[in-house]
Amino acid sequence: MEKPLTDIDLILASASPRRAELLRQVGARFTIHPADIDESQYPAESAEIYVQRMAREKAETVAHQERRHQLPVLGADTTVVLDQQVFAKPADKRAAIATLRALSGRSHRVLSAIAVVADGRTELRLSETSVRFREITEQEYERYWSTGEPLGKAGAYAIQGFAAVFVESITGSYSGVVGLPLMQTFELFERFNIACWNAR
Questions:
Q1: What secondary structure letter does DSSP report for 134?
Q2: Which of 114, 133, 138, 163 has CA atoms 20 to 30 A from the CA of 144?
Q3: CA geometry: angle at 35 spanning 53 and 148, to 5°?
């Protein structure tokens, strides 16, 4: 837990330091309770449905666990999609480099879903961003892997990190690619009267 529960307006159902930093950026007062759920994609489940289901299940799981506090819970999920294939977090170097090879020199989609559970209801938002990578060299695959950044990242890269040098163009939400689309997050905060823009 980040802060005493008397000083917060929201529970973040994620262990992602990137999502926490984005919430701090907009002055949200929150504590962290990561969701422990099965993140497997169902057979024939579309990427759009999958990412929204993950966000909803994370938020609803933590809301149930923390129901005594009656605080809103924010769940989020981000995935990278190319040719309808979902590129989740790579398990090892081989998977990471295979993913980067697939993305090299092409445009892919980054889907970020958010869900807020409060007052007995759940609301969802979905952000879609197009990211185009330049051609990546074999040496760069190896060097990028050695930074340690690809592990734990959807699509095996972090746009806010070393992988920024691969990005030729982006159309859509930069914060959504990082892991939390802030415009849509603010929309849900407004819907649930969750404060942000608090002084740090």
A1: -
A2: 114
A3: 95
Active site residues: 77
Tell if the pTM clears 0.85, that is, is over it. Answer: yes
The radius of gyration of the chain from alpha carbons, rounded to an integer in Å, stands at 17
Domain covering 5-191 assigned CATH 3.90.950.10 in the classification: yes
Domain boundaries, the chain: 5-191
Element (H, E) at 122: strand 121-133
Average pLDDT, the chain: 94
Report CA 116 to chain centroid distance, whole Å. Answer: 14
pLDDT in tens, 154-166: 999 999 999 999 9
Q: Are 167 and 132 in contact (CB under 8 A)?
A: yes
CB 143 within 8 A of CB 81: no
